[in-house]
Design brief:
This protein is α/β, with parallel strands linked by helices and about 240 residues long. The protein has 7 helices and 7 strands. About 35% of the residues are buried.
């Protein structure tokens, strides 16, 4: 029974993702002159997230801390990273943002193509030129009033424990004088099974939006202090 139900869930997710891409493509073409930031295309991911969560009987999702989001402000959003389910849940914030993702993901049919349509930021790991370009592009988005999402661990956790944070997002936040908005994912590591496509157990996945960290009083050399504060908040 679990095999049949899991197959139906994945089929439903696939269909929803194809529809998402087609709708985003249509929005991008029709509204291109009026929506250079692709905000309307990005908004389509909200119903996609709602539909996937509603479709999966194995997922019980809780959102906390929405009151910590000020839609009028621009943030560097940071979050721990446990599984691909994080990508589904992050759209429950209903925020506009561009997120930094490895370049290979943009080549994945439909979901990667949708990422390109939304103009998310491509990172080629190990390529110093690509890393510099990521921060330059992120800074441009921030100056234009668009929040940027980083997973500062740099990769998905294999143990569900929070790994060390890389420095770049925190240096950028101080340089651009934008607040850090920490987000915590809990339970998403088991929401999508590792090494298997079968949903075996019911999972309670939580997304917690923590209070923003103001960066205006931090000097450039204080990035490690800011990084460690954000890490301690997410780890609690």
């Amino acid at each position: 029974m679990k095999i049949i139900l899991s197959a139906l869930i994945w089929f439903g997710i696939s269909v929803l993702t194809i529809i998402l891409y087609l709708v985003m493509l249509l929005c991008s073409v029709i509204f291109y002159p009026f929506d250079k930031k692709r905000c309307l295309a990005h908004k389509q991911c909200f119903w996609w997230s709602d539909a996937i969560i509603g479709l999966n009987p194995y997922w019980n999702v809780h959102i906390a801390g929405s009151e910590n989001i000020d839609k009028k402000r621009t943030y560097i959003i940071i979050a721990n990273h446990q599984s691909l389910a994080d990508i589904v849940l992050i759209y429950q914030t209903k925020m506009q943002f561009k997120w930094v993702a490895k370049k290979s993901l943009f080549k994945v049919p439909f979901i990667g193509w949708s990422m390109s349509l939304a103009r998310h930021i491509k990172l080629e790991r190990g390529n110093f030129g690509s890393i510099k370009k990521v921060y330059r592009e992120a800074a441009e988005w921030l100056r234009g009033g668009m929040s940027v999402l980083f997973f500062p661990e740099g990769t998905r956790s294999q143990t569900n424990k929070i790994g060390d944070f890389r420095n770049g997002a925190f240096k950028l936040a101080i340089k651009e004088r934008v607040p850090i908005l920490p987000i915590v994912f809990e339970g998403t590591g088991t929401a999508i099974p590792k090494g298997s496509w079968i949903f075996a157990t019911k999972t309670t996945a939580k997304l917690k939006i923590l209070p923003a960290i103001e960066t205006t009083n931090y000097l450039p050399q204080d990035f490690a202090k800011l990084r460690d504060l954000a890490h301690s908040m997410i780890r609690k």
